[in-house]
Amino acid sequence: MSVSIVTIDGPVASGKGTVARQVAEALGFHLLDSGAIYRAHALACLSRKIDFNEISSLERQAKALSLKFLGESIWLDGVEATAEVRSEAVGMAASTLSAIPQVRAALLQRQRDFAVAPGLVADGRDMGTIVFPSAPLKIYLTATAQVRAERRAGQIAKQRLAAGESLSAKQLIEKGKPPTIEGLLETIRAQIQPDVEAQIRRRDSQDKSRTIAPLKPALDAIVIDNAEHSPSETVAVVLSLWKLRLK
Ligand code: DC
To answer: In angstroms, rounded to a whole number, what is the distance separating the alpha carbons of residues 123 and 142?
Structure first.
C-alpha cells in the first residue's frame, strides 16, 4: 500500500501545527511535527552543554537522539520534556542548530520513517522541498509577522494567566477597573507583543537565510495566507484540496 503524504510548511506561528494535527485527525493519518525533532535535539545539546561550534558533537547527538512522541507529549532521554521542548529559547536554539548541514543530514531519515500507511501529514520548514519532495499535496501556510506575533502573544498571555500572573491584575485594580479575564489577557498580550514580534522576525530571518533547506514554498506548493482565516477554515481548505488531489 502506498503512503499518502500531505506536507504543511511555513514560518513560526503560522498555525501549521494546529492545522496539521487537525488534518491528520480528519484523514486518519500519522503526524510528523519535524520542528519538535529539531527542538529536542537543541534541548539535548543545551542540557549536555555541547558547544554550538563543535559540529561533530552536535552531529553525534543528532544521531543518538533518544526521542519519543506519546500523543501530544514529548519524551527526551526517557523523561517528559514537552514544556521545555516548546519553549521559545529552545525554538531559537533549534533554529540556529538546524542551519548546520551535518545536523540536518543526521535527522533526515528519522523524519522519513514517519511515512507509514495509511498516510502522513508532515509539518515543518522543508517538508515539501527536501524531506518529501514527491508528496502529492504541499501546502505553505503564512501570514505577516505582525499577525503571527499577535496570535503567539495571545497564546502566551493565556498560559501566563493560567500560571497565575498577578502583576497585571494589580495594575488594573490600581486603575480602578475590576479585573476581567479579557482585560487581563489584553494587558499581558499588549505588554509582550513587541518582544514576541521581534523574536518572530529574528527566527524568520534565520530560517529563510540559511544556505541549506531554507524556509520557502516548494515550487508546486499551494500558498495560503491565513491572516483572515480561523484554523478550522484553513483545515477545511486543505481537506478540499486533498479530495481534489484524490480525483
Ligand atoms: O516549527 P518549530 O518552531 O517547532 O521549529 C523550530 C526550529 O526548527 C525552526 O525555527 C527551524 C527548525 N526546523 C527546521 O529547520 N526544519 C524543519 N522541518 C522544522 C523545524
So the answer is: 13
Q: What tens digit of pLDDT does each residue of 194-244 get?
A: 999 999 999 999 999 999 999 999 999 999 999 999 999 999 999 999 999
71: left (phi over 0), alpha (psi -120 to 50) or beta: left
Of 125, 203, 204, 208, the one to substitute when testing ligand 1's pocket (max ligand atoms within 8 A of C-beta) is 125
Q: Which residue has the cell 497564546?
A: 155
Query: What Å distances lie between residue 173 and 153, 162, 163, 169, 186, CA to CA?
Result: 23, 19, 19, 6, 15
In testing the pocket of ligand 1, which one of 9, 19, 32, 34 has its CB within 8 Å of the most ligand atoms?
34
Residue-wise pLDDT tens digits, 100-119: 999 999 999 999 999 999 99
Report how far ligand 1's centroid is from the alpha carbon of 166 (Å). Answer: 33
Amino acid at 221: A
pTM above 0.70, yes or no: yes
